[in-house]
Amino acid sequence: MTRDDAPELVRLGLTGINKRSTAWVFVVLCGVIAIAACVYVYVTRDWLFGSAGVLVGVGSGAWYYTCIAWMDRHDAWD
After folding, report:
1. Do 32 and 73 meet the contact criterion of CB atoms below 8 Å apart?
2. 4-32, pLDDT tens digit by residue?
């Protein structure tokens, strides 16, 4: 299966990402964003901005992880 056969959300999530290692860097960065948002909430007690950061970090990381899993399952990496 090729990358062009991937579902639209997988192609969108991995736009501009051609290597598996690069995609994993984004997963790790999303985790760092979520942890930094947790620290921000602890320090400032700004729950609105902090919880949005956690949601963005965890949600994006889960999306990248799911895209990586789909590409692995279908041997679609270049």
Report:
1. no
2. 899 999 999 999 999 999 999 999 999 99
Specify burial of residue 33 (Cβ count, 10 A radius: 0-12, 13-18, 19+). Answer: middle
Q: Give the DSSP letter string of 21-34.
A: HHHHHHHHHHHHHH
Amino acid 58 reads: V
Q: How far apart are CA 52 and CA 41, in angstroms?
A: 10
Token pair in block for residue 45: 């007690």
- Domains of the chain, residue spans: 3-10+26-73
- CB within 8 Å of 74: residues ≥ 6 apart: 1, 5, 6
Residue with tokens 């990358």: 3
